[in-house]
Design brief:
4-stranded antiparallel beta sheet; 6 helices; single chain; about 220 residues; alpha+beta; 6-stranded antiparallel beta sheet
Length: about 220
Amino acid sequence: MQRGPQSSQPEYLRLIVHPDFNCPCKPSGFSELASEYVKRTRAVAMELVKGVSESLGFEALYMNRELNLDAGFQLLAINYHPSHLEFDVSRGLMPHTDHGLLTLLCENGVPGLEVLRGGKWVGTGGVPNAFSVLNSDHLEIFSNGKYKSKLHRTVVTDKRKRITLVNPNGPSLDTIVDPSSRLVDDKKRLPRYHPMKFSEYLECQTKLITAGKNALDEIRIPI
């Protein structure tokens, strides 16, 4: 858990919840609630991946097999942003893309999510009892660029407190991810990304994001 030096600072809790479920036992009941939540959100994400697989011309379970999603890496990130009034300045997260295939974002109805569209930042999300779904880096890599990882940021300017539950869903840590062999050839459909083990990508992303850089740019092949 990360907490700012003052009570009015943002607070973050990061849990690895798949393939092994890791969660503090306190407060009472939290672990059980979190376990049920991530099981259900993972089921939603895996159904969406089936649809993506079919949209690329594959059978529904192709991506599951190729990326070893049964042992896939899943996080639960819980983010708390104090109200705009507690800061008197806007707060949030710098522009970034997510690792993995799809990120499910659940918000408490307070707006803040913005995506880059047509060179402009556009507010989205903020709908109660609904998920925002973001394409992530390894979906772009595996689809060889047919799907694009969504650059997004969070800007909190609301008078209300903002709470989000974020679920990145990715391949297994030891899976080497590169463009699907069914989407590349030696002629016109050249691979656009270098292969990299998913665990190594996570390490690379952690190092680069603090410098304002994108790990996806490091493995992109200029064409």
